[in-house]
Design brief:
The protein has helices at 15-24, 47-58, 61-64; strands at residues 2-9, 38-44, 68-76. The chain is α+β, with helices and mostly antiparallel strands.
């Protein structure tokens, strides 16, 4: 399998928006409608390699401070060379 590792900016949410979404039982963030801005991307051919890269990206100060987050997404089969 191929994996995509992404470091994104955390989009802030206003308190009013949070209350409205909570009362409507709607999701707080919908990545399909408006994805968070990407800061860095990488690819890996195995889950082990993807998690190792994600741990490395998670050591960035902005991620540790909560301003950014790291995501690992499964893409599909490995590329044939």
């Amino acid at each position: 399998m191929r994996y995509l590792i992404i470091r994104t900016e955390v989009r802030p949410v206003d308190l009013d928006d949070l209350n409205t979404l909570w009362s409507e039982d709607a999701p707080l963030r919908d990545e399909t409608e408006s994805p968070e801005p990407r800061r860095q991307t990488a690819e890996a051919d195995s889950l082990e390699a993807a998690l190792r890269l994600a741990r490395a990206l998670a050591s960035v100060g902005a991620v540790r401070a909560g301003r950014q987050r790291v995501k690992v997404l499964k893409l599909g089969q490995p590329r044939l060379i």
